[in-house]
Amino acid sequence: MSLRTFSIQTLGCRVNHYESEQMAGVLRRWGLEQVGTRDGADVRVVHTCSVTTEAAAKSRQSVRRATRLPVLQTAQADLASVVDDVVGERDEAQRPRVVVTGCWATSDTPAATAIPGVDAVLGHDQNVAAELDRLLAGWIGPERRASSGDNGWNDLPGANPDGADALSNNEAIVGIRVKEKKGRIFGSGMTSLPLLGERQGGHQRAFLKIQDGCDAHCTYCIIPQLRPRVWSKPLDEAVEEARRLVAAGHGEIVLTGIFIGAYGQATALRRRQEFGTAKPLAALLVALCERVEGLKRVRVSSLEPGDLTEELIETMRGLKQVVPHFHLPLQSGSDELLRRMNRQYGRGDYLTMVQRVRAAFDRPALTTDIIVGFPGESEDEFQRTAEVVREAGFIHVHAFSYSARPGTAAARWTKEFVRPEVANRRIKALVEMAEKNSYAYRKQFIGEVMEILVEHSSEAEVEMREPDMKHGRCERYFPVFVKSERLNTGDAALVRVNEVTEKITLGTWVEKGKA
Questions:
Q1: What are phi and psi for residue 401, nearest 5 degrees?
Q2: Contact at 8 Å (CB) between 256 and 207?
Q3: Residue 189 gets which letter from DSSP?
Q4: In 166-247, which ranges are continuous DSSP H helix?
Q5: pTM for the full model?
Q6: What pLDDT score was predicted for residue 458?
Q7: Distance, first Cα to last Cα, the chain
Q8: I need a surface site. Which of 97, 242, 254, 461 has the fewest CB within 10 A?
Q9: Could you tell me which residues are beta bridge partners of residue 435?
Q10: Which 8-state DSSP code applies to residue 154?
Q11: What is the distance between the alpha carbons of residues 495 and 471, in angstroms, rounded to a whole number?
Q12: Helix 310-317 and helix 279-291: axis angle, to 10°?
């Protein structure tokens, strides 16, 4: 059986989804066609997550499922050749090739390797681009890549077709020296993969990873052990990648990374950074907005008080493409819990950041992440968190129960674990609070005209149960639904908000533009 198709199953964060798009580009360069994860692909990549115990377990289950799915035979010639083979050769010919990548591949390499049917486990300590090329050359033959064409690979900045370690570093951005980690040698990992130049799935918003790695060591987080090397994408490469994504049809770019506040720095520890302001990130935003023609929106995915300085706020306010939506992870509103988490800010720092954002932008939309039930969280400490949620007016709260991750400091505090039923009750209270905040916030815009980028119609149909109902996210993040047969996925549309319910926002189409 010749290898003709591939699939990628992605678990975890936005960074993982971006990296999956990069790996898909590598696989296409070998002439493989992407199919769904349930379609029995010949080559199956499972890009895993390990941020919690549950995420690691789900990753393990996904890998096992990938090895058991049957192969979808796509050509009569393949079937004929299989029939003529001996039994052992037939089994090998029909067997899919399974590759495990990502954080679980790094944290639990022996467990991933031991799963029957897994052909390769590529962790963050390996040159993923080079290893994928090596595997595919062995499975397909080196001539397949040459005959399939490079599809623009070789002219992409950051492309690494020969497998050399082309790791971009922070010195190229701000002239600082990157210190190597002691102990385990971490190579280029996912940063060896090429820049993107194709449309990302069916999404209107494109993720652009500008940073990788973290050494801040929050007590609940395993990531610094899996992605310890702090890396930043050189400014010119980020601009070129954004140009290609816009040319591919993406009107909005979402900047993402493991610790975006460390962009252009050698460390995520602010006390050790060479300067306290966010100059590299500000410079990147200016470059994207001034040099990428056709870019309608830039959204920054996650910032903390030490990141969102007055200088950065002033820069963002002066760029029309930067949207008034800020995702500001809180984790807890208790100073004591923030200290135990080893966060680099206190409650007062956080509220000051919120005040700065509100003063600088017109009705900014604020969203956040909160860990509920962190070891030792009392009812009083939870109420301190609830107070911040009310004061900040978050329109969405991603509240999740603390999950002990082996290998982290907090996982050892077993005597202080919060009962699941208590954590669930607290999560429900925060979500209800955010829903009320969202309802009150969205009502402010009744009668106003705003622009949406129309998303895939099936999502709106599921939500609204009306086939002609479309939806898209506005600059302030919340979706607006509009009834129109003429609007298509990818359109930029001006809509007038005319009704707001507790669940959705409804509008009337005013004008259609080009995304």
A1: -75, 140
A2: yes
A3: G
A4: 171-174, 223-226, 235-247
A5: 0.87
A6: 52
A7: 42
A8: 461
A9: none
A10: G
A11: 10
A12: 10
Lowest mean pLDDT among 89-103, 125-139, 400-414: 89-103
Instruction: With H, G, I as helix, E, B as strand and everything else as coil, classify residue 87.
Output: helix
Strand order in the sheet with 396-401: 325-327, 365-372, 396-401
Buried b (16+ CB within 10 A) or exposed e, 26-48: bbbbbbbeebebeebbbbbbbbb
Q: Could you give the CA distance from residue 286 to residue 293 in angstroms, rounded to a whole number?
A: 13
Give the DSSP letter string of 334-349: -HHHHHHHT-S--HHH
Closest CA to 450 of 319, 355, 362: 362
| Sign of torsion over alpha carbons 89, 94, 95, 98 | positive
More confident call, 434 vs 485? 434
Cβ 215 vs Cβ 224: under 8 Å? yes
Query: Do residues 376 and 225 make contact, with C-beta atoms less than 8 angstroms apart?
Result: no
DSSP 370-417: EEES-TT--HHHHHHHHHHHHHHT-SEEEEEE----TTSSGGG-GGGP
CB 253 within 8 A of CB 208: yes
Which amino acid, 314?
E
Report which of residues 283 and 76 the model is more confident about: 283
Contacts with 77 (C-beta within 8 Å, 6 or more apart), sequence order: none
State how far the Cα of 469 lies from the Cα of 457, in Å rounded to an integer: 7
H or E element: which one contains 510? Answer: strand 505-513
Beta bridge partner(s), residue 479: 473
Judge contact between 376 and 340, C-beta under 8 A. yes
